[in-house]
């Protein structure tokens, strides 16, 4: 496995400066935002596609810093009921796949998306319970009329372009847990797999090790992000918490830098499980910790992961020290 980072952490720096900065900390591979909700601060597909000069410029920065690209990421909602949003996020998705092909990157990360409750909706509707039965009717309509037809087409498009799509299970979208992720992958085909981010599973009460074994070879990319559960608030209000991520003191849980929600033993077990199912790709640091600054969270994550990751050197696996 390779130590990586989602470069959006350093969105205020130029691409050249951001890559040089993370490389000095021992990062081997980077994930680059290319659209959707995360924007495209470092790499704008429309400006790079079909432009050999820009492509070579990017490759030169990577080569100079001995860094590769693990994935291009356009986390968006191409199924949004607002056609303007859906069309923009779909365009970002298509352009990201084409750019990945030009750059020689094999993986694109995205969300599954979430439609509304009907053709007349203005906003997405995430169904979380089966009753009243309106909810199940909505869920059936979403999957049969919107989700599966779209992802069947995108699975074929990915195959045609030789790209793997890593869908990130995330509450608020139709794919948020193990069974919904597997359902999507089975419908879309082998070129659609999982961007595994344990932080979204922790607060739902899921077992990250069991999920890894369930996903198996479908894990195409990995986000290193943790979650801390705040016992008192959770006991009062449960995990379905709509308060702002900034309101950490009152929330039931919060995203944390790796190691600040769960300790080394669990993360070691996770990396062992990843290796067992055949994953040897990026461990991409994603910082969304509302308690730590970006720099502090990044440096602590690098230190923590260097101590617990399984890496590979000269064909031999060892515990990184």
TrEMBL record:
InterPro entries listed in its UniProt record: IolE/XylAMocC-like (IPR050312), Xyl_isomerase-like_sf (IPR036237), Xyl_isomerase-like_TIM-brl (IPR013022)
Highest taxon above the source species:
Bacteria
Q: Which residues form the Xylose isomerase-like TIM barrel domain?
A: 20-307
What Pfam families does the record tag this protein with? AP_endonuc_2 (PF01261)
Task: Give the transmembrane ranges.
Answer: none
Q: What keywords were assigned to this record?
A: Isomerase
Q: Does the keyword Isomerase apply?
A: yes
Q: What GO annotations for molecular function exist for this entry?
A: isomerase activity
What name appears for this protein in its UniProt entry? Sugar phosphate isomerase/epimerase
Query: Which organism was this protein described from?
Result: Paenibacillus baimaensis
């Amino acid at each position: 496995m390779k130590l990586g980072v989602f470069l959006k952490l350093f969105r205020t720096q130029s691409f050249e400066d951001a890559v040089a900065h993370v490389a000095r900390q021992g990062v081997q591979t980077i994930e680059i935002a290319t659209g959707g909700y995360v924007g495209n601060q470092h790499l704008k597909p429309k400006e790079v596609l079909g432009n050999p000069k820009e492509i070579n410029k990017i490759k030169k920065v990577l080569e100079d810093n001995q860094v590769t690209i693990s994935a291009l990421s356009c986390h968006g909602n191409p199924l949004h009921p607002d056609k303007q949003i859906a069309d923009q996020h779909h365009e970002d998705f298509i352009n990201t796949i084409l750019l990945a092909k030009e750059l020689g990157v094999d993986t694109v990360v995205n969300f599954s998306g979430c439609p509304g409750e009907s053709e007349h909706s203005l906003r997405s509707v995430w169904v979380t319970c089966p009753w009243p039965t309106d909810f199940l009717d909505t869920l059936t309509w979403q999957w049969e009329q919107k989700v599966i037809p779209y992802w069947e087409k995108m699975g074929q498009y990915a195959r045609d372009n030789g790209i793997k799509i890593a869908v990130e299970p995330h509450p608020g979208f139709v794919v948020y847990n193990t069974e919904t992720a597997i359902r999507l992958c089975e419908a879309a085909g082998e070129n659609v797999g999982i961007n595994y981010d344990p932080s979204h599973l922790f607060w739902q009460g899921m077992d990250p090790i069991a999920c890894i074994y369930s996903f198996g070879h479908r894990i195409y990319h990995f986000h290193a992000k943790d979650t801390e559960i705040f016992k008192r608030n959770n006991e009062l209000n449960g995990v379905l918490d709509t308060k702002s991520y900034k309101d950490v003191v009152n929330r039931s849980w919060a995203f944390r830098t790796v190691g600040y929600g769960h300790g080394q033993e669990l993360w070691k077990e996770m990396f062992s499980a990843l290796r067992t199912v055949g994953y040897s790709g990026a461990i991409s640091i994603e910082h969304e910790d509302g308690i730590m600054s970006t720099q502090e969270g990044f440096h602590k994550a690098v230190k923590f992961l260097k101590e617990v990751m399984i890496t590979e050197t000269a064909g031999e696996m060892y515990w990184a020290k």
